[in-house]
Amino acid sequence: MDIELRLLRSFVAIHESGSISRAAERMACTQAAMSMRLKMLETEIGAPLFLRRPGGLVPTPRGAEFYAKALGVLSSYDEMMSVTRHRPPRNRLRIGMPDDYASGWLAALMRALGRDLHRLEVEVTCDLSANLMAALERRDIELALVTTAARPVQAIHSVDLPLVWLVHPDRTPGEAVLAAYPEGCVFRRAMTQTLDRAGVPWRVGVQSRSQAGIFAAVRSGRAVTAVLQGAEPPGLLPIASGANLPALPDVAVHLILAPDAARPARQAADILKSCLLAHA
């Protein structure tokens, strides 16, 4: 199957307007030409893409599915042409860090890059530290901030930072219900081991791979979590310790740079190193 982009654009216009005539006006062609394009596309697909109803054209299930895919193809094509025609060549900076580290340090990195940022295309991967380590091995990223159980041999800088509890201001003290990343997360292990040593009952009430899911659980007032001091979002309260919440240990944050990293990644590594030193 080899479908012209013109047919895809015509199909999208029909889908979004619900009318052959309105789609023809949008595409600056005749209704006959628009009808012919739809017929050609349905012939290529081998199935009807719209049903005719009194209120206009209604997409079939196949049409609705094809619309989503057509948008993706057209978006990728338009972006490719825009980059080729209008943008000067740019270097790529591929960096990875967990969600909570990104909220604390990514903005500072972008500001510090200053004028150099205009010559960069920054690709940020937010994931668990273990997954970021694997991404570094695959060379999917060149620079990463991670927290692991042991210091990675590739780390170019490490710093111990304080870990605090994050709670809702109106939380009622009681059983320690945790909102945590999946098993393997250093923050999760710090919480559970600290509570075990203090003899405090606990359970993981919410598990999420995203910071948004964890913070939403804490905002409910029914769960608590752990964050680096200074990385707390507005509306939630960081505390060193409290009722049934003994003080947490410091955690190590490691900065890792791929040996063959390009100049933008090395420049970003210097900036992040300064950020870590200032945060310590």
Return residue spans where pLDDT drops below 50 for at least 5 consecutive residues.
none
Cα distance, first to last residue? 58 Å
Query: Average pLDDT value?
Result: 89
The H-and-E topology, N to C, reads as HHHEEHEHEHEEEEHEHEEEH
Q: What is the total number of structural domains?
A: 3
Q: What share of the residues lie within helices?
A: 40-55%
Domain HTH lysR-type: 3-60
Family: Belongs to the LysR transcriptional regulatory family.
Protein name: LysR family transcriptional regulator
Organism: Albidovulum sediminis
Can you describe this structure?
- By secondary structure, the protein is of the alpha/beta class.
- It has 3 domains: 82 residues, Orthogonal Bundle (Arc Repressor Mutant, subunit A), CATH 1.10.10.10; 97 residues, 3-Layer(aba) Sandwich (D-Maltodextrin-Binding Protein, domain 2); 87 residues, D-Maltodextrin-Binding Protein, domain 2 (3-Layer(aba) Sandwich), CATH 3.40.190.
- Helix content is 45%, strand content 22%.
- It contains 9 helices and 12 strands.
- The strands form 4 sheets. It has a 5-stranded mixed sheet, with helices on both faces. A 3-stranded antiparallel sheet has the order 10-7-11, sandwiched between helices. Strands 1-2 form a two-stranded antiparallel sheet.
- The N and C termini lie far apart (58 Å).
- This is LysR family transcriptional regulator.
- Belongs to the LysR transcriptional regulatory family.
